[in-house]
Amino acid sequence: MKLAFTDNEKLKLTAEGILVGILSGLVVSMFRWSIARSLRIFQGLYIAARTNMGLIVGLVVLMIAIAIFVGYLLKKEPDISGSGIPQVEAQLAGEMQMHWWSVLWRKFVGGILSIAPGLFLGREGPSIQLGAAIGQGVGDLTHDNVGVSQRVLIASGAAAGLSAAFSAPIAGAMFVLEEVYHNFSPLVWVTSLASAVSANVIALYVFGLQPVLQVPYKFSLPIKYYWHLIVLGIILGLMGRLYQICTLAMPAVFNLTRLPRYIQCIIPLILIVPLGMWVPQFIGGGNEIIVDLQSYGPSLGLMFGLLVIRFVYSMISYGSGVPGGIFLPILNLGAIIGALYAIAMHQMGLLPLYFESNLIIFAMAGYFACISKAPFTAIILVTEMVGSLKHLMPLAVISLVAYIVVDLLNGAPIYEALKERLSINSTYLNRVSKFNDRLEVPIYEGSSIDGKYIRDIPFPKDILVVSIYRGERQLIPRGDTLIKAGDRLICMVNAGQRAKMTEKLNNLFKSMD
């Protein structure tokens, strides 16, 4: 097991990351295009069904057929359930291993069939898992299928998937580092960025240069109105905590139906028929709603009703376990909350209505930041999706306030919480591999081992600290080597025990506080 990568190996891994990005860009672009076109077809069918009873019956039968087929896919491959981001996190943590080809084609087909009829689900979570599967596949085909090399390719594929889904390469790389991989290693950063940029080139060629959420606005928000960011941030934090609680509770609610987990998707698929007939413009992931939100007029009743519909049915859609994400629905709910707040403040004479678009943009970032607890990703993502750098300061303010509120309410990152709900095979966690692996442990400011000597830290016997990186400089650890914040400890562990060793180190550091 190598302790460090040579320059040639780093270049090779970056080149493989570019290949992963190109392949992910092609697959995710097809996925994104298929969903958009199919959704328009279904919206047309829902409208036509208003005056055609036979078409209503046909649509119900079609939804039952889709539910049965998607249920079959879920039964054969349970790892395609939900957004896929918790599964990717668990895989990178060494807690599970996925069969990349099985996940790739089933997630692709199941995701289209689940999202296209209009369920309130996003394409970005499945896109991240599709990219991760492609990264794993490239690792297998290039023999980088053991240890850190494959994890880097999986992470870069996840970055490419989000980049192609939203045409947001910087946010794709940042999301992987901040939320999925939990590691700002230069090797991961460079490879993920190369993969994300490559995927975005493909997406831009297919969908054009226009930002995904081009919300029009007239003026920048003056400093005198910044107090609204604090109030709105508090509201977003409270609503974000409610979203977390409801999302985590929905599987238990669905289990009350006594339907097998893999067939519970029949409930939202049948319910989407009357909902699509009633408000076809409000179904789906919600990106068009965000763009058109201002055109609905300054009606508090309409905005509140839209918020209730989107919130409740988002819970039903995702809670059923179908292949689909919550990324875009979260942004959509944030935008509606921002519009609702702007209209309410305008009617009270506290804010001009032409700042509604500003608050729509800001609230998207704040809502996503507090639910995922990934504020940097939220700021960069909304900046790239809107296509403007003029909002960085208010985005930072509202994201910080919303984040703090959820933190005070003991809210955990939603994807981390969902990962803990996964059924992890204990046999897999207790396996022993014939390979050794590299475990990289970043030392944060305030860590319990910051300022301690190596000899004073009771590392588990199955962990060997073999190297310390201080910036770009590599140190050989000795007993009198002082650990400092910002260091990266490189430990040698058995490849099959990587997840358990990570947990042991976390418990060790907590016990030393």
From TrEMBL:
Q: What is this protein called?
A: Chloride channel protein
**Coiled-coil positions:** none
**Can you give the residue ranges of the RCK C-terminal domain?**
426-508
Record localization: Membrane
Query: Main site of residence?
Result: membrane
Q: Where are the transmembrane segments?
A: 13-33, 54-74, 152-175, 187-207, 227-250, 262-283, 295-313, 325-344, 359-383, 395-415
- The answer, when asked if Transmembrane is one of the entry's keywords, is yes
Which SUPFAM superfamilies does the entry mention?
A: Clc chloride channel, TrkA C-terminal domain-like
- Please give the organism: Companilactobacillus huachuanensis
Q: Which CDD domains match?
A: EriC (cd01031)
Print the keywords alphabetically: Chloride, Chloride channel, Ion channel, Ion transport, Membrane, Transmembrane, Transmembrane helix, Transport
Q: How does it sit in the membrane?
A: Multi-pass membrane protein
Pfam families for this protein: TrkA_C, Voltage_CLC
